[in-house]
Design brief:
The chain is an alpha/beta fold. The protein has one domain: Thiamin diphosphate (ThDP)-binding fold, Pyr/PP domains (Rossmann fold, 3-Layer(aba) Sandwich). The chain is 39% helix and 19% strand. The strands form 2 sheets. A 6-stranded parallel beta sheet has the order 2-1-3-4-8-7, with helices on both faces. Strands 5-6 form a two-stranded antiparallel ribbon. The protein binds thiamine diphosphate (TPP) and magnesium ion.
Length: 186
């Protein structure tokens, strides 16, 4: 499965009460192109989607906050997971799209293949689902979304995805416009 297919199939699970934060580069472009707008599309701030998601989840406890992050972003912002493990807002859900590369900048390898995500998240006391390439079919994927989005605690879904270096249409809004549109929505 490709990252964009994963994001596109999330659509039916997204309601007006779902706030999405997507990591910079391809992931935000995919979120912009395939999911309801507007959301928090990071256009820089590499490594920060989980921190921003945590802040949103704490500030908006009635809403579901979904962070969609590439592996490079997740590993760069790993220390934020210690804080998330401490607060564990029940409305915070994180999807890691792990293609083991920095697809956005040309496909350089990340160190993702040497990381044991399950053990890592266990160490932070965070519930996790997926990983070890267990999600290989569209039906498994939908099952995983269901578990993730109905979970009553902070949960992380780690998905191995294929390399995907196709560039989609970029987000036409500057960060300030993105912020303003999102603030109007919430
Ligand atoms: C601090 C910083 N370093 C590098 C970059 C350049 N950069 C933008 S997106 C990206 C790759 C992100 O990788 P990942 O989160 O795995 O997403 P993918 O591109 O694989 O979808 C990089 C290196 C940046 N924007 N900021
Ligand atoms: Mg990646």
């Amino acid at each position: 499965m490709r990252g964009k297919e994963v994001i596109a199939s999330l659509k039916e699970f997204i309601s007006d009460d779902t706030l999405i934060v997507s990591s910079n580069g391809n992931v935000s472009r995919q979120a912009y192109n395939f999911l309801p707008q507007p959301q928090v599309y990071l256009r820089g701030s590499m490594g920060l989607p989980m921190s921003i998601g945590l802040g949103l989840a704490l500030a908006q406890p009635e809403k579901q906050v979904l962070v969609i992050t590439g592996d490079g972003n997740f590993l760069m912002g790993l220390s934020s997971m210690t804080t998330i493990g401490n607060y564990k807002p029940p409305n915070l859900k994180i999807i890691i799209l792990d293609n083991a590369i920095y697809a956005t900048t040309g496909g350089q390898e990340t160190v993702s293949s040497t990381v044991d995500y399950l053990k890592l998240l266990e160490g932070f006391g965070i519930q996790h689902y997926g990983s070890l390439n267990s999600i290989k079919s569209p039906s498994k994927l939908l099952e995983a979304f269901e578990i993730l989005l109905t979970s009553k605690q902070t949960t992380v879904l780690h998905i191995n995805v294929e390399e995907d270096i196709e560039n989609l249409e970029n987000i036409p809004w500057q960060p300030k416009e993105i912020k303003n549109k999102f603030m109007e929505k919430i």
